[in-house]
Sequence to fold (943 residues):
Amino acid sequence: MRILIAGGGQAASLVATRLIREGNEVVLVEENPDRCRQLEEMLDAKVIHGNAASIRVLHEADIRNADMLIALTSQDQINVLVCLIASVESDVKYKVARLRTHEVNYWRRILQRAGLHIDLIIHPETEIADRILRVVRLPGVSDVIDFAEGRVKLFGMNIEEKSWVAYKTVEDLDRAGPPKNSLIALIFRGQQVIVPHGAEALKPGDHVYIVTTADELEPVCQFMGLQTQESLDRVYIVGGKQVGIRVAELLEPRGVTVKLFERDIARCERISQILRKTIVLHADGTDESILAEENIKGAGAFLAMTNDDEDNLIASLLARKLGAKKVVALINRLNYLPMAQRLGINTTVSPRLAAVDRILQFVRKGRVLSVTTFREEEAEAIELIAAEGSKYVGRSLREVRLPRGAIVGAIARPNGEVVVPRGEATIQAGDRVIFCTLESTVPLLESAFLAEARREWV
Amino acid sequence: MGVIRPAALGYILGQFLLALGGTLLIPLAFSLWSHGGPAPLAYAAVVTAGTGSALFFGLPRPATDLNRREGLLLVFCVWLAVSFFGALPFYFSPAYFSSFTDAFFEATSGFTASGATILRDIESLPRDLQFWRCFSHWLGGMGIVLLGIAILPLLGMGGMALYRAEFSGARSEKLKPRIAHTAQALWKIYVFLTLAEYVALRWAGMNSFDALCHSFSTVATGGFSTRTASVGAFDSPLIECIIVVFMLMGSINFTLHYRLWVERRPRRFISDFELRTLLFIVVSSSLVIAAILALKSGYAPAMALRKALFQVTAITTTTGFTTDNFAQWLPLPQLILLALMFMGGCTGSTSGGLKASRMVLLYKVVIREFERMVERRGVFAVRVGSGVIPETAVRSLLNLVYLSFLVNFLGCILLAASGVDVFTSIAAVAAAMFNIGPGLGNVGPVEGYGGLPAFAKWVLSFCMLAGRLEFYTVLVIFTPAFWHK
Fold:
């Protein structure tokens, strides 16, 4: 497939890397000449220098022959404009645009009414807010990802030195009698990604992902030595930007006390008009004395959501030190993510990764229901529907040979039953199967699992 | 810039050698009917493939893509290795090549599509070696590494860095999003032109072996022939005409060929300023030389034009076929040819030289300097054709021109030091560095390079490689900065 990407930022280059590796032809349009040169060296793609909203530039990028357009420039107006030009000047099959305005829902309606059909509008802030809400109640959990309409959960946690599971092998944990439906699916250790077998031991500092069902999420967390909060009492949000406001809005009806720090007085006033119950504080959330005064100790969650990565990191570290139960940091720059992990901030949200996940999920639509990328790109969790005639269908997992580096996390049957399999389970046609896998085996899995080669996307 | 991993380079080099070992089997088909016993080509194929598989299977697959530094080094190593192993069939034929120096010179001249030869009698050479000489032109003409990118699937690594390091810079845009597809598109055009010429030459009455070899040599703008007297041996205006056309084809930017043959946009082809410049220079130089030949050297007017056009085209496109011994011409035509050697064909083509567009650009830069002297506060853009040339490109152009003259001068000094006369030195270095082939003076079309001292042959071999890779790629490896940690 020929894909035209407008914009050459971090999200664009990440999406391009993945799409190229999956066999697509990618053309990028980027305005900054230095960035163009960088992209050209990084990617096996054609890079066109110019403004993406220029018709001449888009023609140079051969928009006429593109199958898909992904508008990822930093400006919403340009993204919409590119889609508009594409819908007139070419018959691009699929259009994807990223919008960052908080008025995104109006825009969806307006674009529809105006007859400009955009197949996917990504609003990273919404995705992030949803992701935060899922983990905010679970202090030790870095991340919860839903599969099969939320029936299957995949959650991440850090292994602490003093936790009872440290130095235990996967087999040891099995013998200790964990809840029935649970499985350690991926271990991130330093730069390494491990799909564990029985003898693999968990080491302090590891970041592990565990599959379980919705009902058993809390028992599994407790089994792994994590405390869960029955109800959230106090949540602190630093930074009155889109994500912060959105999360506050979502928490308010749940009866949670939310306090929001914002440095800019004019913004504080605006936010106080938008949010009804939230207490808006005109204060610097990265100031230790202010945080100490606010009694952060024992607070349910502390969310650092300013536009500045460094501020978010500092505020998160302070909050951890002061004893907040759950700390979440918003990180824009992807190269900060591993460092945040090392500093012990295990829940990070990134608008760029959120956008990348959403795009990949869309590109593989029809074949893959859900995609989550870990650690930029080395590992993935994907959800597939087992097709009739696949060589994996109708045989127990013990018999079939999965590609190396892949593990079946869970099987969700059409009747609502969910199994986290232990070798004897059998995949039936129509089941939704959640795989945890190294990125390199994704294409292999897809083609083997879907039997009839629905490759029109590749 | 990143660290250089010898194992990674060795692994990829191994792939190239394996492939080269395979291509050595092609001329083996001709050995079967010219030789009785096992041919030198068979030995060469075994040694090459053996070395290649030792590297390829013995070394671990590199975990990450090549970085820029490795890319530059790899391109140079590939060219060096290909010339070395490509020389083996000659080295194993001591009846024709007395030393490894001669064999290496011949092979380098082959792969760089220069066409300079140490042989004086080509007809006596066995057919398989004749074929290998012309075939090596063809393999190298479009770029060995480019060929590798097109057909070796494992070479996706660091593609653009390799592409840039080998393919002549300035105006070679990527035709397709993926580097491998771009390389394949260019090679398809190349194969198409070769086949077209083969058909044309057969139609003009050449036998199939000669037609094949000459097609390889022409489109690659190489210059090796199957005859000692080069194309002159056929003495056919029709054949000369066909070869003139295809020499020009080979020296036109292949992006333009793509526009014409694939996208079918002939206007973009015809309106290209570099192509027009090239044609203008070829025609005007031919007319001037024809006039001199007719008036001063006693050629019949039609013959003068025919000889002049062929020689001028062969030199300008850096092919180096001959139909006349131009080393015996009057001084002025010889000097015109020497100047044409420096220019060469178009960027992004198979020809060598500094390239026509760079010459135009250089002229415009000089004019702008004059304008600046007059209008002290003026800001002038350098325009070439319909585009404006960015300042960075102007700077790298001036560097390149300076560098080529410097290397040229150093080469001349080294040649003179080994006892070659001044005019021969200048012509030999230019002819080698710009991948033309036959020079002037004592290395003219008849004498060849066989009489030069061994040291001079090594210097010229290096010049051919440096010129083929447009100086930077080769010379950067000899700078201390390249090896800094």
In short: The longest helix of chain B spans residues 391-417.
